[in-house]
Amino acid sequence: MANTGVVAALQAALAAENAAIFGYGVAGAHLTGSSQAAAERDWTGHNQARDTLAAMISARGAVPAAAQASYQLPFRVHDASSATRLAAYLEDGVTRAYLGLVAVSDQRLRRFGAMAMQDAAQRAASWRGSTLAFPGLTPLAP
Amino acid sequence: MLLASAAALPLLLGTAGCRSSDVFTGPDPLAGRPPLGHDVLTLQAVIAAEHGMIDLYRAAISGDPGHQRAARARMLRALLAQHEQHLVRLKARLIVPPGTSASPSPSPGGSGSAFFSPGPVSVAQLRAAERASAADLVRRLVTAPPALAQLLASIAASDATHVTALGG
């Protein structure tokens, strides 16, 4: 039962990584120069994270969920500005997805999830140009 | 009249030579207050550290306003505001039984040690404090209840972004 929860949390993180890989492919096509280089670097990082998560899921006797053929983008991406917003949006989603791993009972996985949240939140802040008080969490109502 | 108030019951039991534990299956009302739970102690320590971080930012902002560039002062105020939000959300989770006086434990070698430095506070000191805070929160979250662990992880992620914003 505990393993079921762990695998579900890992699959959720994997799904977010797959969505980010797709999204960065779209965003990168609208970026140039250092922004494009940053998008390529982040795309590579998400590919590595995907492979790590897939291996962790397989090690627990489960099958890593496959990426979808395409993903519905949250808004139209047609220029560098919207591509940059998409990158921040993708990283916010990845940050949120790793939050599930922080709630499992395995302490090593909790630490892994927390560190992955930090990486994603830093990338999101870089794309957004500002930081958040609660990356991955829903802000409290005012 | 056979009714006895809860306050009078221990007296009655004492008179009869009974321990309250002979009657109640719950916590012994004569044994003093139960110790605070691990999650409460964790929250108290994190709240104390957050207060320290806020003090540090306030010191940095007020330390040398004449020489600070406006953009940097604006950034520091924005990061301070986020620490104040952390504090509000942490305090909202803290429910301490009335009358307890357990003091929060500052983290050894963690963010607490970076706070109380006399004199002007530099951006480098803020950066070091943020880095230490993020590490301390991750250390604490691995043994915290799941919902608290998620809040601590989110605050740690926020602190990590502050390190980068401060040039780290």
Query: CATH homologous superfamily of chain B - what is it?
Result: Ferritin, core subunit, four-helix bundle
Tell me which CATH architecture of chain A applies here. Answer: Up-down Bundle
- Gyration radius of chain B, rounded: 22 Å
**Helical fraction of chain B:** 55-70%
CATH class division of chain A: Mainly Alpha
Give the overall silhouette of chain A: globular
Structure write-up:
The complex is a heterodimer of chains A (142) and B (168). Chain A has 142 residues and is an all-alpha fold. Chain A has one domain: Ferritin (Up-down Bundle). Chain A has 4 helices and no strands. The longest helix of chain A has 27 residues, at 2-28. The N and C termini of chain A lie far apart (38 Å). Chain B has 168 residues and is mostly helical. Chain B has one domain: Up-down Bundle (Ferritin), CATH 1.20.1260.10. Chain B has helices at residues 9-15, 38-63, 70-93, 123-141, 146-165. The longest helix of chain B is centred in the first third of the chain and has 26 residues, at 38-63. Residues 1-21 and 107-114 of chain B have low confidence and may be disordered. Classes of the chains: A mainly alpha (142), B mainly alpha (168). The A-B interface holds A 95, 99, 102-104, 107, 110-111, 113-115, 117-118, 120-122, 124-126, 130-137, 140 and B 78-79, 81-82, 85-86, 88-89, 92, 134, 137-138, 141-143, 146-147, 149-151, 153-158, 160-162, 164-165.
